[in-house]
Amino acid sequence: MFAKKIISWYLKNKRDLPWRNTDNPYYIWLSEIILQQTRVQQGLPYYEKFVENFKTVEALAAANEGEVLRLWQGLGYYSRGRNLHKTAQVVVREYGGRFPDNFKDLQKLKGVGRYTAAAIASFAFNESVPAIDGNALRVLTRFFEIFDPIDSPSVQKNIFDIATDLMKNVDAGNYNQAVMELGATVCTPKNPNCEECPINIECKAFENKSVSQIPIKAKKTKVSQKFFQYFVFEHKGRYWLKKRADNEIWANMYDFYLVESENLDYHENLEKTIEEFNIEVESVKTYPVVNHILTHQKQQIAFTEVKCKSASTIGNGNWYTIEELDDLAKPKIIVDFIQNLKKG
């Protein structure tokens, strides 16, 4: 009854999303990678941009990495964008442009884990395998009132086995979509709308008033504190930026001259940089500190604009006009600052 009830509810209440109107594994894979760590509302325009620019996996594979990262900028977790590009190349090179058609082989692709493989396998090929994302975990742990920590591998396996039994003899794609949609729109982390839930009568957590206590995580993410001091060197309308190395945060993307330090007192760092590169300074302008919060890191970021009397050679970077900056792949924090620069 669980599966039939939520599928019936889903078919009447589902949101109209473009990747739900196709069984093309390329479009489904594209949507799943974009929506990892990203809300649907934020991810939708990115999905549309990628589909518009790369209509096939061959087109995505043929693009250069900078072009892919430029379209990705603002989504964060940039390794996803790089893996997206690399996986497209693998699919073209090793699979002749056709995605593997089963759960087991899909997991061999870079950036495709257990959940993403299950989603593609069920949505594109109707393979009966449960796609357990955060929404599905929440629905199932509340329905069965599971107080064990969901970050435990043994608990995750138990929930996977339970879900496998629940989806027998029903349409796999609709079942997985239904469970995730219920978690995204009704069985939400905070203030769930239990009265409108199609399975509330059978839900153990609803019956025992324990909904707000579930799910439970045993481990807490350790969050580190970082201080980033950006020096925005400018000379006659041109700005200095460099391409980051491929083993750094924001790999292969462009940003301004960066100094990581124990605080954001720019005077000492600027003095060292000026001396190192023999920069002649015309004027200095500071901007308010920006707080940037990631899952594993709190960043305090300061921008200091330094007008230079000449276009000095500063490390392994180049000077660009404000218009040329649009063509460079940049982290969102840099994109936002440049937008402010353009506004004056």
TrEMBL record:
It is an enzyme of class 3 (hydrolase). Pfam families: EndIII_4Fe-2S (PF10576), HHH (PF00633), HhH-GPD (PF00730), NUDIX_4 (PF14815). It catalyses: Hydrolyzes free adenine bases from 7,8-dihydro-8-oxoguanine:adenine mismatched double-stranded DNA, leaving an apurinic site. Signal peptide: none annotated. Keywords: 4Fe-4S, DNA damage, DNA repair, Glycosidase, Hydrolase, Iron, Iron-sulfur, Metal-binding. Its cofactor is [4Fe-4S] cluster. Belongs to the Nth/MutY family. This is Adenine DNA glycosylase. It comes from Lacihabitans soyangensis. The lineage of its organism: Bacteria, Pseudomonadati, Bacteroidota, Cytophagia, Cytophagales. The gene is mutY.
